Amino acid sequence: MCFFSIGIFHSCKQKEESPAETAPAVVMESIVDLTDAQFKNAQLQLSLPEKMNIGHVIYLNGKIEVMPENTITVSSPMAGFVRQIKLMPGMKVSKGQTLVRLEEKEYIQLQQDYLSAKNALVFAKLDFDRQSELSKNQAASEKVLQLADEKVRQNQILVKSLGEKLKLIHINPATLSADNMTSQIVIAAPASGTITEVLVNSGKYVQAGEDMIRMIDNNGAKLVLKAFEKDLPYLQPGQKLLAFSNGKPDQKMNGKIDHIVTSIGEQGFSNIICSVDGRSTSLLQGMYMNAEIEANRAESWTVPNDAIVSFEGKEFIFVEKGNQSFEMLEIQPGQQEAGRTQIINFQIFTGKKVVTKGAYTLLMKMKNVAE
Asked: Looking at the predicted structure, is the pLDDT value of residue 13 above 90?
């Protein structure tokens, strides 16, 4: 009796400890075969892929940047004291507007040297003319005439040199006289623009070549967009675009692509330099912008949208293998237009007919077989 009870207990324990059988993983085949009846009921339609010019809109983003040629640094042409400056960052200035007044006694010395050299040149020319007359009458030697000519040339060089130095400090040598000599010079804006930095203050002594003001040319702002490698084949200089900011997406501005930087950076994108028409003061350096670009149309292999089925997050088409047999192939869809989709990896079905109607019927048949 006891032996029988132990046997039952042992048998029950074995059943409890025996592991449950694992169901085999379902692997769906990529081929589906139809019977005559199934083929008739499916009412499939097939056609070859077609080539067509596909166009699309590319959406890019970037920001407003000022090109190096339009970033202006105003430096001191000579050392001097800052006697007047009434600027602050953000101020708009016009070309020729006074930015800074500098004062230094060396400015007076330079003007004095120029006027003295100019007078010396006048007397050197008079002496040369006199020696020329004497030479004609053989009353002066040839050597004396040559020395007079050399003195004229030296004074001409000195006057020219000093005159160019005066131009550097914005003093016109053509109008300079003993009556209008000045100890101050005016530094004017070389172009219309916006002040970004003021590096000096009244009373400061600046050295020659020292930076005093930084500004940007109002016409130098460009929209620099970032384009990834996949977008580059559809972009070229001259293409039109619509640009808008994140804050005002409804206010779109016309623009065009000026240049494309063909090298791709470490982050995987290339810079697209663009002009924006009708720029306003609301476009500030560093502002983030968006752009819509009508891409170049390119000839591509396409299939009808109905030919594409989605399964487990991927896209597929069915191609005919013959004898009512069809193969499911994974595709890389591209752009869509006029009810058709561009296929990037078109090589997988070149020359084969594609199921354009009834593709989901084949997918359901395949899933039912797998289950």
From this structure: no
